[in-house]
Amino acid sequence: MKTIIFKSASTYLLPLLVLFSVFILLRGHYLPGGGFVGGLIAAIAFVIHSFANGLEKTKSLIKFHPGFLMPVGLSIAILSGIAPMFIGESFMTGLWFEDPIPVIGMVGSALFFDTGVYLVVIGVTLTIIFTISETL
């Protein structure tokens, strides 16, 4: 299904869906959403683009293998859980900066954990879907 309408729409949907996924990621440590849902939305944006424009064109947009995001995201998530142990707190205790950051709000270890989950979900989802697409 590579119609001109689908190709044109996917060109505009990719940045909008990635931006929306970042919004869901940042919203998630206060309200429903977060890294998992945001990662799925970002992965869906790239899948839509690959269906419309071909797998090779989408891979050229990403510039690196999506599997690289898995260890990076996992490292960020683990470090956000271990960080409280350096100040005498237990594993996965929430730490928060004292002053809010404009637009984002209060930033704490939950946001870093969600960011790690976000990257892992994008990496796993795109690796699986791109691998299946290559074999078809």
UniProtKB/TrEMBL annotation:
GO terms for cellular component: plasma membrane. InterPro entries: CPA3_antiporter_subunitB, MnhB. Keywords: Cell membrane, Membrane, Transmembrane, Transmembrane helix. The keyword Chaperone does not apply. The chain crosses the membrane at residues 12-30, 36-55, 67-87, 107-132. It is a multi-pass membrane protein. Its main location: membrane. Residues 5-127 form the Na+/H+ antiporter MnhB subunit-related protein domain. It is found in: Cell membrane. Belongs to the CPA3 antiporters (TC 2.A.63) subunit B family. This is Multisubunit sodium/proton antiporter, MrpB subunit. It comes from Algoriphagus faecimaris.
